[in-house]
Design brief:
The structure is a single chain. By secondary structure, the chain is an alpha/beta fold. Helix content is 52%, strand content 10%. The chain has two domains: 232 residues, no CATH class; 371 residues, 3-Layer(aba) Sandwich (Rossmann fold). The chain has a seven-stranded parallel beta sheet with strand order 6-7-5-8-9-10-11, sandwiched between helices. Strands 1-3 form a two-stranded parallel ribbon. The two termini are 44 Å apart. 53% of the residues are buried.
Length: 625
């Protein structure tokens, strides 16, 4: 799973209807001890027979869809009743689905209770403040007018939505407000259906079932189509006016912290591994590692195809169809960035027009192309961040496709063991070529392998898919951990993830691993405030800018992307500069310097990298020797 080299501007309904609250689960179960859940793999699996493609069933009549939704809710309630779940992210997901079912079935008192009870269990202040920003006024309007449609309900919603916005702290809700506006502007039912055609239909066609994750997606999407989208013409003008009235942008703290090295500083060249989807090396001609004896691989590093076979490509190859899509996707992302930031540009207008007029079949085609293209450009964008302002940087490329859930073939133990050997070669290559720091802006977990099996296997039993996925993922985890261990003098820096969840509970690899030469990095915005999307946990040691970070993409265009994929190379950038100034630093010493130079938030949750302060620490330390 690419740690989404961005937080996609096409987050669609997910950014809009999620209440982002956690309910108080039934902690007391009559006379039975609950099963303790220590990780995501401890949770039960469910499946639901489906006779139609999910994208078709999504628009079924209320009786049919609501019966399906209630069946899913029954299973969710059984999990809450029978399992002791401490992980708030997991509880949020379960209760978000419960809320969506309650909205679909017009169970408004229950829906309000769900929102109210669970807001307090949000981890982040922004989440607490913006929780239920649209759902709560909607539910209260239904209750006040005893209706879910019609002029009286619409007027009540208008008043309550406006009043709720006015009562909220703009500083805490501004990112959620902008995200909601963007979703309202660009998301259509046709886009939702197209997304399901690409993401869910294939797995259902293989097995004739959908698992709980797919069912939750279907319920969320149905809620957008049936509940949220009809209110667009009321909510969007109110939201846009509110944003315009509070249009002061957050301050940008990062320019004042930046350190730019020059050749006059007697720098030592430092090799930086970009273990990712490849790099357009033509963009960095003066910052490339060149292997004097490359053999059959590229002189800039290693590369593997989807089957684990070596090749000599620095960058993944686009098909003619993908090459046609590439400039359109990049232009669309630029336009969506403007939409998010309230910039009324031709690119923003074109993005709105393109997405609003896209029928489901075209939307599915676009989603498929968009997924691969962001994988394709990801490594190049990451590399530009990692080497910025450092003439001593030398990029070492390790290219492979981590978008494994989209692979057209089913995963096997043989495939995993092939990559285990490949990754051992990667670790050996880093060690023998003195690669000092490596960026890993991707992660994988058991759920992703289960999803891959769902898409490519005819196995109907989710428990059997889980068992098979556990074996394959176990090898994959060993492969990644083994590569990092085999290069003890290399500092590996990885992205925490974009799922607003605990990396350890989700068992994300590598961000949940505990190794002396590995740290995970979370994302903050331009003001140094924790983003809504960043994952967290006791392995997340530092935070760096992961919001609208500008860098190159293949071909030389610059693009702003968001995600912990961007925060990780910002930390790599600092580490590489420290090593260029003092090549005697070990991974442990570099980590220690970065931690001591970081700025800690009052609540201890955030540790912002501070390049200037950290370089000053290094100079003080060097003088003391």
């Amino acid at each position: 799973m690419k740690i989404q080299g961005r937080v996609s501007a096409l987050s669609l309904a997910a950014a809009l209807i999620v209440c982002h609250v956690v309910a108080l689960s039934a902690q007391e179960s009559a006379g039975t001890a609950k099963k303790k859940v220590n990780s995501a793999s401890d949770l039960p699996r469910f499946s639901y027979p489906i006779s139609k493609p999910p994208s078709v069933f999504l628009t079924a009549d209320d009786a049919a869809f609501n019966a399906f939704a209630r069946q899913v809710l029954h299973d969710i309630e059984s999990v809450l009743s029978d399992y002791e779940i401490a992980d708030k992210s997991t509880l949020r997901q379960l209760y978000e689905t419960r809320l969506n079912v309650e909205l679909l079935t017009n169970e408004n008192d229950a829906a309000l209770a769900t929102c109210t009870a669970l807001r307090m269990l949000q981890d982040k202040p922004q989440g607490q403040a913006s929780s239920g920003m649209l759902d709560r006024p909607l539910i209260k309007a239904r209750l006040a007018e005893h209706a879910a449609a019609g002029p009286a309900f619409e007027q009540a919603f208008r008043e309550k939505f406006q009043g709720n916005l006015n009562a909220l702290d703009w500083k805490l809700i501004q990112d959620r407000a902008r995200s909601m506006r963007r979703s309202l502007e660009i998301t259509t039912p046709d886009l939702i259906v197209g997304s399901e055609k690409e993401e869910v239909d294939q797995g259902a066609a293989k097995s004739g079932t959908v698992d709980l994750s797919a069912a939750e997606t279907m319920i969320e999407d149905r809620t957008f189509i049936k509940v949220v989208f009809p209110l667009k013409q009321i909510a969007l003008p109110i939201l846009s006016s509110h944003i315009a009235a509070h249009s002061v942008r957050k301050p940008d703290i990062w320019a004042a912290r930046e350190v730019t090295l020059t050749g006059e500083q007697k720098l030592t060249p430092v090799r930086i591994g970009i273990w990712d989807s490849g790099v357009d090396t033509s963009l960095y001609p003066d910052q490339l590692f060149r292997d004097p004896a490359p053999g059959s691989h590229s002189p800039h590093g290693l590369s593997f195809d989807n089957y684990g076979n070596p090749n000599n490509a620095d960058l993944q190859t686009l098909t003619p169809e993908q090459m046609e899509w590439y400039p359109r996707v990049v232009a669309l992302q630029e336009g969506l960035n403007d939409v998010f930031n309230g910039v009324d540009s031709p690119a923003a207008a074109e993005a709105r027009k393109t997405l609003a007029s896209m029928p489901p079949d075209k939307a599915a085609e676009f989603m498929k192309a968009e997924g691969f293209i962001f994988e394709y450009l990801h490594g190049t964008h990451v590399a530009g961040i990692a080497v910025r302002g450092n003439p001593a940087a030398r990029i070492v490329v390790v290219q492979f496709n981590d978008n494994i859930g989209a692979m057209p073939f089913p995963p096997t133990l043989e495939w995993a063991n092939k990559f285990k050997a490949d990754f051992q070669q990667v670790g050996d290559y880093f060690r023998t070529n003195d690669v000092r720091v490596v960026n890993i802006s991707w992660a994988d977990n058991l759920e992703e392998f289960e999803y891959w099996l769902t898409r490519t296997s005819a196995e109907k039993d989710p428990a059997a898919r889980k068992e098979m996925a556990q074996k394959i993922f176990g090898v994959w985890r060993e492969a990644i951990e083994g590569a990092i261990r085999s290069a003890p003098n290399t500092l590996f820096i990885c992205a925490a993830g974009n799922s607003n969840s605990d990396t350890s509970f989700a068992q994300n690899v590598p961000s949940s691993l505990r190794l002396p030469n590995l740290i995970a990095v979370g994302a903050v915005d331009q003001a140094g405030e924790e983003t809504m999307f960043t994952s967290y946990g006791n392995t997340v040691a530092l935070h760096a800018n992961g919001f609208q970070v500008e860098s190159y993409v293949p071909g030389g265009k610059k693009l702003k992307l968001s995600g912990t994929s961007m925060s990780s190379p910002n930390a790599v950038n600092l580490a590489a500069k420290l090593i260029a100034l003092d090549p005697s630093l070990t991974p442990e010493q570099t980590i220690d310097l970065m931690k001591r130079g970081a700025d800690r938030s009052p609540d201890g949750r955030i540790h912002l990298i501070n390049p200037k302060a950290t370089v000053a620490l290094l100079k003080t330390q060097s003088r003391a020797k």
